[in-house]
Amino acid sequence: MKTKQITQLGMLLSISLVLGYLESLLPVMAAVPGVKIGLANIVTMLVLYRYGGKQAFFIMLLRVTMAGFLYSGVTGILYGLMGGVCCLLVMAILKRYPLFSILGVSMAGAVSHNAGQIIAAVFVMENAAIFYYLPVLCISGILSGLLVGYLSHLLIKWHFKNFPQN
Amino acid sequence: MDIMRNSLIKKGDVGILLLILAAAAFLCVSAGWKKQGDWVYVTVNGNETVYSLKDDREISIGADNGTDAYNRIVIKDHAVYMESASCPDQICVRHKPASKDGETIICLPNQVFIEVASGKEKDIDN
């Protein structure tokens, strides 16, 4: 990895942390835990599309761990990692196929993220009934995925125009 | 599909959307078919206690463990709900009363978990 890319990824990582913090300042939108926009995922999308899956994975790993120590605690890291890994796996696979645009990739990623967190919650709370939250999280995942996907589309287009070579 | 050719949305995206909606609908329907519950399982920090959903009563949790955290659960008219709680988000308090098999009310901050179940009581020494 070139020094230039390390620097860029470092800055993107800090941007994603700030985005996550900004989102926590927004008033709570729903009465269901786990429903959120996932603004920080815009950075993950940018890195995935402009740098690659490996880089996106490391950025996600670092962001979740750092955000966990800063705001949400160790349980938060566990939930975040489970969600992040599921999300990125699905997005990296779907991105390979031209059948899906960034909107679909983002949507599938958001829903997988929520499903991953639910699976983590089932293991933490040792109760399978939490699965009943999943329909709500599916709908919220579609909406947030579309929003994040569209914002990422705009950002990646801009990024491509201004930094064609990275 | 001429509209789609020049737009950001591709066919696969619609497929993903439909797949997710189908999965959500399936989960909803399978949850809606649940029958009326008979028992309330209250789990606090991994310790499970069972109560009958038929008998009205009030359950206080955490009043005597030294911390400020508390949860007050009410069983009334064949339904269970969280009357009050010390948690900051109050999600459990706003949750609608649970009465059907498999329904849950969770207070994540206080690690309190309420589940309604039906059928014969599981063998718990209570």
Q: How does the SSE layout of this entry go?
A:
The complex is a heterodimer of chains A (166) and B (126).
Chain A: H1 3-25, H2 41-50, H3 53-95, H4 102-125, H5 134-162
Helix pairs in contact in A: 1-2, 1-3, 2-3, 2-5, 3-4, 4-5
Chain B: H1 2-5, H2 11-32, E1 39-44, E2 47-52, E3 57-61, E4 71-76, E5 79-85, H3 91-94, E6 104-107, E7 112-117
Antiparallel strand pairs in B: 1-2, 1-7, 3-4, 4-5, 6-7
Model description:
The complex is a heterodimer of chains A (166) and B (126). Chain A is mainly alpha-helical and 166 residues long. Chain A has 5 helices and no strands. Chain A has a single domain (3-160), classed as Arp2/3 complex 21 kDa subunit ARPC3. Chain A is 78% helix and 0% strand. In chain A, α1 (3-25) packs antiparallel against α2 (41-50), α2 crosses α3 and α4 (102-125) packs across α5 (134-162). The two termini of chain A are 13 Å apart. Chain B has 126 residues and is α+β, with helices and mostly antiparallel strands. Chain B has 2 domains: 2-32; 39-117, mini-chromosome maintenance (MCM) complex, domain 2, CATH 2.60.320. A 4-stranded antiparallel β-sheet of chain B has the order 2-1-7-6. In chain B, strands 3-4-5 form a 3-stranded antiparallel β-sheet. In chain B, a hairpin with a 2-residue loop joins β1 (39-44) and β2. Chains A and B meet through α4 and α5 of A and α2 of B.
Radius of gyration of chain B (Å): 20 Å
Shape of chain A: globular
Supply the number of helical segments of chain B: 3
Number of helices of chain A: 5
Describe this protein with a few key phrases:
heterodimer, A: 166 residues, mainly alpha, Arp2/3 complex 21 kDa subunit ARPC3, 0% strand, globular, B: 126 residues, alpha+beta, mini-chromosome maintenance (MCM) complex, domain 2, 2 domains, 4-stranded antiparallel sheet, 3-stranded antiparallel sheet, 3 helices, extended
